[in-house]
Design brief:
Pyrimidine Nucleoside Phosphorylase, Chain A, domain 2, alpha/beta, 15 helices, 2 domains, about 325 residues, about 10% strand, Transferase, Pyrimidine Nucleoside Phosphorylase, Chain A, domain 3
């Protein structure tokens, strides 16, 4: 079936559009990622889904199709935390690398994936470069970083080239598309006997919290769901957001944390700029304990460590 038939279903506006089944969504995304749809069809698909929004069944199909075209990586004995990083810094320093380094310091293997460049923001890749941390080009590179006690960063164009092409449609139509939601859900770690994984899934708009909660339950995922800092998978250093921890798809009341509310009596000292070199210098000062680690990021690292310890072992 051409994707034009699917566009006819999903493209009738917010009230007239109908959802796709998981298998239809899988077929649609497979055709898009494999280059079987025209640029015009892909643009129509992206706009239609932007207006309609994704259902759990559609997300299931989209993610399954994407994972089949993704470089899959064996987990580590220590467990792996996956940090999908797809927004970058616009006003605040991008501290996703700081969270990754804090977790690695605790002996946890960390995989960060995302785009290398964004013409409007400072990407995690740019901060990794400024820190002198290498970009993984192969699975062996990822394993080498873990063995050296470093977090691993892999560009989406290496991890899943067709997904990277779909994400780039944004620069043609001016809007994000389902590929961005899929990217934030992407866990490329192979389930292996005796190995655990956790992923951080972040959102920027409250309505996505509902759909992502439903998806994580459906997928029986091990994940920390939170409102990201400018869309990044790291807690806002100024105020800890709500942490919803899912173990095997079930929200864990003990591990989940309420947001910090009320009037803040003290703010962390942040750098004056948010460019990559300035952010890297700030992160290095924290890692050398010359600057205090923001309580919100410390709390997130502890939460992920505890959640990883309780995640079910692969089989």
């Amino acid at each position: 079936m051409s994707i034009s038939a699917y566009i006819k279903v999903i493209g009738r506006g917010k009230d007239g559009a109908r959802p796709l089944s998981s298998e239809q969504a899988y077929d649609l995304m497979s055709q898009v990622l494999d280059g079987h749809a025209s640029d015009l069809e892909i643009g129509a698909f992206c706009l239609a889904m932007r207006i309609k929004g994704e259902t759990v069944e559609e997300l299931d199909g989209f993610v399954r199709a994407t994972l089949e075209r993704t470089l899959m990586i064996a987990g580590a004995q220590s467990g792996v935390v996956v940090l999908p990083s797809y927004n970058g810094a616009r006003k605040l320093p991008n501290l996703t690398p700081l969270l990754a380094l804090q977790l690695a310091r605790q002996g946890i293997a960390v995989l960060v994936h995302g785009p290398r460049h964004d013409p409007t923001r400072v990407t995690t890749a740019q901060v990794f470069d400024a820190l002198g941390l290498p970009t993984a080009k192969t699975i062996n590179d990822v394993q080498a970083s873990w063995h050296a006690g470093r977090p691993a960063y892999m560009d989406t164009a290496t991890l899943c080239p067709p997904l990277a092409r779909l994400l780039d449609v944004r620069w043609a139509i001016g809007l994000r598309n389902p590929g961005h939601t899929v990217a934030k859900l992407l866990d490329p770690i192979v389930a292996a006997p005796g190995r655990r994984t956790m992923r951080v899934v972040n959102h920027t708009h409250p309505e996505y919290a509902l759909s992502l909660t439903a998806y994580l339950a459906h997928a029986r995922a091990n994940a920390l769901l939170m409102r990201g800092t400018e869309g990044e998978p790291v807690a806002d250093p100024r105020r800890q957001p709500r942490f919803d921890v899912f173990i095997d798809g079930q929200r864990d009341e003990h591990l989940s944390r309420a947001p910090v509310d009320g009037v803040l009596t003290e703010l962390p000292e942040l750098p004056n700029g948010f460019d990559a070199p300035t952010t890297a210098q700030y992160i290095e000062a924290i890692m050398r304990e010359q600057q205090p680690l923001a309580a919100a990021i410390a709390a997130q690292a502890v939460c992920l460590r505890q959640a990883l310890d309780l995640a079910p072992l692969g089989s």
